[in-house]
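Workshop exercise sheet. Pairs work together: one partner reads the sequence aloud, the other fills in the structure field after running the prediction. Swap roles for the next sheet.
Pair: D.N. / O.F.
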Amino acid sequence: MTIHSDPRTEGIVVVVLRGEIDYGCEEMLLRSLTSALNSSARGIAIDLSKVSFWACSSVKVLLATRELAQRHGKTMSLRALSPIVRRVLELSGSLHLFTTEAAPASPHPGWRPATVAPSQTPAPAPPPPAPVPVPGARTSAYSSAGSAGTSFPSDSTGVPVGPA
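Structure field:
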């Protein structure tokens, strides 16, 4: 993700997103967009032309940023949507909520945007612990009660025996 201020837009900060924007990026994306919005005089424009994957969960980040911009009297627009971003926004029914525009040419020859280093993606959650056997308890993959609350006798191994 890159962020730069375009001198031709007078107060609009342009945020350029590239690559895969997935579930693990949500928090960083929200922080970055909020920071860009706070540092802008008039608002932000988000260039999504180089996004190759867009998680549905990232739509809520755009909606939260849009709401924040509106509360502060600023604008938020989406520039040059990649096909995948456009499709996700269409399927979610949220595309009509955003102002969209074509991306302008580079602000000046030789311009290169500053790169914002992404934070470390959080490690996946550890698997749940294995069940601990309780001494004296009989376990079975079958329920000891039928759907109508009928109890079935168990055989010597503790497995319920259903009606014949």
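Discussion prompt: Strands lie at 2-5, 12-21, 43-54, 75-79, 99-101, 114-115. What would you look at next?
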